[in-house]
Amino acid sequence: MPEFHESVLAEAVAKALVPAIAATPEAVLVDATCGAGGHTAALLARCSPAKVVLLDRDPAALEFARTRLEGAECALHFVHARFSSLAAVLDELGIESVAALIADIGVSSHQFDAGERGFSFRADAPLDMRMDPTRGRSAGELLAEIDEAGLAELLRRYGEEPEARRIAKAVIVARPRTTGALAQVVEEAMSARARRQLGRRIHPATRTFQALRIAVNEELEELDALLEAGPERLAVGGRMGVISFHSLEDRRIKRRFAALSRVAELPHGLPLTADQLPKAPFQLAAELPRRGVVADAAERDRNPRSRSARLRVLERRS
Ligand SMILES: C[S@@+](CC[C@H](N)C(=O)[O-])C[C@H]1O[C@@H](n2cnc3c(N)ncnc32)[C@H](O)[C@@H]1O
User: Fold this and answer.
1) Residues of 296-310 as b/e, b for ≥16 C-beta within 10 angstroms?
2) Which of 251, 262, 312 is nearest to 285 (CA)?
3) Do 25 and 53 fall into the same domain?
């Protein structure tokens, strides 16, 4: 099989989700970010859901995963959709609740490595960056329309770029149309001090590329929508695992899972014993560290993408 994408934290995902699938008759598994189908493959090797629904906004990923998962013993539904439309996709398939949901958000290696998709400054190509190349506005189109203040704000918000204003100014003057040209403009605009702080291993344009990609694909809005819809569709005992790759995402996941696991405030002074306290309908997976699961040293060495990955798991208990 050609290299498409190596799954991250596949063992941890399987360990966390298999019991929920195995305990549910006619279990439905949702893989909200099918990619190369790696997480689904890892789960199907260990348990037997009745149905798997695989979503991806990238048709190339679905095509690859369809071939990889051929011969699976359960029903597989491949759906070209954003995961923000999860509820509509499940309604369409007549599925009310699911035993497990996995979302491994972000870009796949395939998207990143295919130079012509315009995600990376490693190859010079038109600035595209759309995970779904069939619709939406490319990074080049965004840069052609945005003004300096808007770009500076975008770089600060999605790239946490301290030199956002300098970079925005230079980019708006140059209006680069390719990944190589953008990387060069950013590198030249950045102060020597900021470049030194990044060190030799991080390219000066890394945060700018991240910010544009997040904006083009509306990644944070997508994540918020998934964090709304996903827990609602979990069966009792069902689990939802989300893997994120940077703090902007992880913060949102942590807060949403914590909010769902908290009991509603009780009227002040109500005399209740610990047993009488109402239980929250959700809880964090009890066996996992509260800060989530990260890759061990062996995985980090084998797969550098795993270095920034963090898995958090939520369970529905009532
Ligand atoms: C990191 S890869 C997933 C890899 C997969 N878990 C595996 O093990 O092979 C992320 C995938 O999610 C898809 N994706 C990202 N955001 C999405 C969204 N909002 N809706 C649907 N798919 C999305 C990307 O197109 C990409 O194929």
Assistant:
1) eeebbeebebbebbb
2) 312
3) yes
Among protein residues, the one with the nearest Cα to ligand 1's atom 4 is 35
Contact 116, 253 (CB under 8 A): no
For a mutational test of ligand 1's pocket, the pick from 17, 43, 56, 210, i.e. the residue with the most ligand atoms closer than 8 A to its C-beta, is 56
Q: What is the pLDDT of residues 144-170, one digit of tens each?
A: 999 999 999 999 999 999 999 999 999
Is the per-residue pLDDT at 275 higher than 80?
no
Q: How many residues does the chain have?
A: 318
What is the residue range of 45's domain?
10-110+219-316
Domain-ending residue, one of 167, 183, 216: 216
Residue 158 lies in a domain: yes
Q: Give yes or no for a contact between 306 and 8, defined as CB atoms under 8 angstroms apart.
A: yes
- Distance from C-alpha of 106 to C-alpha of 121, rounded to nearest angstrom: 17
DSSP characters for 43-79?
HHTT---SEEEEEES-HHHHHHHHHHTTT-SSEEEEE
Shortest-distance atom of ligand 1 to CA 5: 9
Among 216, 250, 268, residue at a domain's last position? 216
